[in-house]
Amino acid sequence: xxxxxxxxxxxxxxxxxxxxxxxxxxxxxxxxxxxxxxxxxxxxxxxxxxxxxxxxxxxxxxxxxxxxxxxxxxxxxxxxxxxxxxxxxxxxxxxxxxxxxxxxxxxxxxxxxxxxxxxxxxxxxxxxxxxxxxxxxxxxxxxxxxxxxxxxxxxxxxxxxxxxxxxxxxxxxxxxxxxxxxxxxxxxxxxxxxxxxxxxxxx
Length: 203
Hints:
InterPro entries: Bcl-2-like_sf (IPR036834), Bcl-2_BH1-3 (IPR046371), Bcl-2_fam (IPR026298), Bcl2-like (IPR002475)
GO molecular function: BH domain binding; channel activity
Transmembrane segments: 179-199
CATH architecture: Orthogonal Bundle
Number of domains: 1
Order of helices and strands: HHHHHHHH
GO cellular component, one term: mitochondrial outer membrane
Domain Bcl-2 Bcl-2 homology region 1-3: 60-156
C-alpha cells in the first residue's frame, strides 16, 4: 500500500525530504547566504507528512554518518564539486554508483545524504548558488529513478523499519552507548505504526 491512495504523496514526501536533508547539513556548514530552496520543492500538505519527513531526516543523517568516513564517497563528492565539465552529469554518475548494486531504502538515504554533503562542499567553495542546482539534480534523479521503486515497495511508510535498523547498525558501529539508538529505533517504528494505523482507518 503506497501513500498515494491515502492522502499522502510519496513524490511530495521524497522531495521535501531531500530539501530537509540538504538544509540540515547546511546548518552545520556556514553562515554564508545561499538562495532559498523552498520554490524548488513542493510544500507538505499535512502534519502526518511533516512528521514522516522529520523522522526520516533524522534517520538519514545517522545512516549517512557511515558515508562520512568512506574515502571513495568523499572523493566522488569532491569530484563533482571540482569538475570543470557538467557538474550535473558528474552528480548523476555519483548517484548511479550509489545504486550500482540495486535500489534499497538505505541506499536512497545515502544518496540524499551525499546531496547534503555536496551542498556543504559548494558553500565552502563559495558557490552557494549551486545549492539550488544540487536540489534540482537530486529531485530529478529521485523522480526519474527512485519514485517508481518506492511506490512498488509500499511507499515511504514502508521504509521505517529498514531505515531504523540501518540507523541502529550505524550508531552501534560508532559508539558503545545504545540508549539513543533504541530511542530512535522505537520512535521510527512507532511513528510508522501510528501512521499506518491512521491511514488504514480511513479506508
